[in-house]
Amino acid sequence: MTAPLPIGQALLQRGLIDQQQLDDALERQRTEGGTLGHQLTLAGAVRRLELYDTLAEAWDAPRIDLIASPPDPDLLHQVAYGDLLREGWVPHRRDGDTLWVAIATPPDDELRAAVGARFPGAEPRFVTTTDWDIWHAVEQANRQDLLFESQDKLAEESPLHSARDGLTPWQLRTPLILLAVMMVGFVFAPKHSFALVITLANVVFLTAILFKSVAALRAPLRHRRIQRDELLEMEERARRGLSPRWRTRASDADLPIYTVLMPVYREANIVEKLIANIGSLDYPKSKLDVLLLMEADDHETIEVAKAMRPPEYIRLVIVPPGHPQTKPRACNYGLSFARGKYVVIYDAEDRPERLQLRKAVAAFERDEFEREQLGYDQHPLACVQASLHYFNADYNVLTRMFAVEYAHWFEAMLPGMDDSSIPLPLGGTSNHFHTERLRELGAWDPFNVTEDADLGLRASVMGYRVTVIESTTGEEACAQTAAWIRQRTRWIKGYIVTAAVNTRNPVQFARDVRWRGVVGMLGLILATPLAFLVYPISLGFSLATYVGVQVIGLDLPSWVVASSVITMVFGNLLMISTAAVAATWRYNWRIGVFAIFSPVYWLLHSFAAWRAAYQVIGDPHRWEKTPHGLTEDYESDAHL
Can you give the residue ranges of the Type II secretion system protein GspE N-terminal domain (predicted)? Predict the structure, then answer.
């Protein structure tokens, strides 16, 4: 019997590719790795069905359509769906001792051993199918398990870490009790009660301001620490006889598969731009595993995505109906199919820096080297966060204010927190995870509408680290006030819920995260929504106190007047100055100067905060969608 031709020659002989296409694919295989067939389909040289028809002949295993002839679900359920997706086979049917196995990988000894381990005593016979057919068959057979994992697994297996049950009874009662005490105080001791309320409001406001400002002021120290650590590492590497500087992987062939999750909902207008932005990443396409996550009721986006016929490295995943219908639930569903060693989330309008995936890989691999080879005493790295900026920063006043806020957050405050080893709240996008560690954390909480901040804290509770990397992603800032209010309501509501989840057992939380985690919880996660809630009270009472004492002779202790005025003046100036410096560095002075309007911008936050507080009680899981693509074609003149 004549030995089958290599796949490249077989395709060439069938006239499905030409010699140039084969040579180009072989060169990419040499430099990037992967299979030759995958390289050919990525390049569009051959269609998927043509490739697998040729492989079926080479493997002497006729091709089967698993959509027309689905596998026996009882057989499928005998093997974990993750193993089937990873190994590229599914049991199809059984005839006595003969087990028919549909394969998308060569029927070698390793595959036979894997089948034999799951089905002892069975004699495997092989038929060929496509990798897409296997994925679809596994998804259909395990739909209920996938839905459970994406929406209920965390709540069922780790209820203390889930927001499904909302606030506990004592958390709901505490604000009502404080309000009742305050009202009684105003009836029987109005002067002292007034002084106490304004003092507490000022303390909350100043706590949030001081935390964010001190963290921002520490950002330059992080750069010095990095330089110092690099020098110490160079000395240690030299002592061990290693090269003096860390080097990333020498060849693209050594790079790991990277999964990119892209949740979209009612965003048919920007799907094309989204695919183009991901395609511009400097990472071998043969190592990209991109999942476009679309909700089942979003028919327009689904139809547009299908009509576009996206590149082979992009899979269209339709998330089945379920509750709650949120972005983290969709990401959890996509995570079940992730093939990459690392996984990142990008929003629909994101424009990540071209080298971002490579920088994330380098950060994870350097962490492993430091812990395993150099013996650094540090927790394993679970996630690295890239910074975010706005490509439409100077579109209008609102986008300028949003840009100032994000610059202060990502360019100053988060690096400063990282330098202080305080647990970081993640941004909603451009957070890169070690996939297996993300699964160990329980993935995202679908019932928390600020799932990113929640996951950053949970990583710290479970003994992992989160850090930032020197890379940035462009996003679209809300250009409409109504949309901004909804987005900020969701964000602040999520912070309130995250604080509530982590303080269900305050003593245990403090033990898990130590004092730095407690400082982060009190100074950022809890103080931020509280500061926005009390800001109108603090501002109004400060003005009323000053005017009342100066004009109508209101009888209040002098320390109340002085502390109120100093808190508002000093707190506002401190926040304005640090935000202005960060925004000027990130963009230019024409953006940074808008920090002067921060006190007015915070009044908008206050409106959103009170709206969020109302929703926490009545509708804690409501996801208010932020519209994208309103200024998609606008390019900021700000220096990025």
Answer: 60-143
Which CATH number belongs to the domain containing residue 425 in this structure? 3.90.550.10
3 pLDDT band (50/70/90 cuts)?
Answer: low
pLDDT value of residue 554: 58
Domain holding 294, by residue range, is 144-628
> Do 199 and 106 sit in the same domain of this protein?
no
Is residue 18 located within the same domain as residue 61?
yes
Interval 16-32: pLDDT, tens: 999 999 999 999 999 99
Tokens 């679209």 sit at which residue? 476
CATH for 36 = 3.30.300.160
List phi, psi (to 5°) of 639: -75, 125
639 pLDDT exceeds 60?
no
**Total count of domains within the chain:** 2
Q: Each residue of 285-304: b (16+ CB within 10 Å) or e? A: bbbbbbbbbbbeebeebbeb
In the prediction, which pLDDT does 626 show?
A: 76
pLDDT tens per residue, range 203-242: 888 888 889 988 998 887 776 766 666 666 666 666 766 6
Cα(244)–Cα(230) distance, rounded to whole angstroms?
Answer: 10
What CA–CA distance (Å, rounded) separates 447 from 155? 9
CB burial of residue 26 (10 Å; 0-12, 13-18, 19+): middle
Strands 288-295 and 258-264: parallel
- For residues 38 and 42, give the distance between their C-alpha atoms in angstroms, rounded to a whole number: 6
Residue type, 298: D
Q: What is the mean pLDDT of residues 478-502?
A: 92
